[in-house]
Amino acid sequence: MSNSRTLTKDPIAEAQRNWVRNGWEEASGPMAAVTAIMRVQQILLAEAEQVLKPFKLTFARYELIALLSFTREQQMLMKRASALLQVHPTSVTNAVDRLEDAGLVKREPLKTDRRAMTIVLTAQGKKTAARATQALNQDLFLRTGFEPDEVDSLISILSRFRARSGDFEDAPTAP
């Protein structure tokens, strides 16, 4: 996962040293951790976007069609999708607009409440979700560079952090 812009020194380690030099030693480690997590997120998102480019999907749109593909009837209320994806309803609406234009989903009013909207995965959307998932598994998820024990540790550490931050209530469970 290196690129032509690979640096010769770790700028986050340098920032941590600067924090210490400026008397912020106690905050230096957490600052470096937060900054490193944000940088890793940028790197992984860029890799995901590259893998999804042939499918004309962003990672946000992929997440939505993947979520729908895992449901029994390949459909879900827009409000529920927003909650599960942990994004604002406007973000789901924008993603649905693009996915609908691409023929991957369609909107249907809920029969019992015509104000509520259901997102339905189309046959093409189901195929695209499956192919995009296969590409992500092969070209990103199985090639992150993390060792298996690192993955387990990361999941555990980040799950505990998310729970403490109020991201979810129940205790993390292993898949």
TrEMBL record:
The keyword Isomerase does not apply. Residues 30-163 form the HTH marR-type domain. It comes from the Bacteria. PROSITE patterns: HTH_MARR_1, HTH_MARR_2. InterPro entries: HTH_MarR-typ, Iron_dep_repressor, MarR/SlyA-like, Tscrpt_reg_MarR-type_CS, WH-like_DNA-bd_sf, WH_DNA-bd_sf. Keywords: DNA-binding, Transcription, Transcription regulation. Gene3D superfamilies: Winged helix-like DNA-binding domain superfamily/Winged helix DNA-binding domain. PANTHER family: TRANSCRIPTIONAL REGULATOR, MARR FAMILY (PTHR33164), TRANSCRIPTIONAL REPRESSOR MPRA (PTHR33164:SF101). This is MarR family transcriptional regulator.
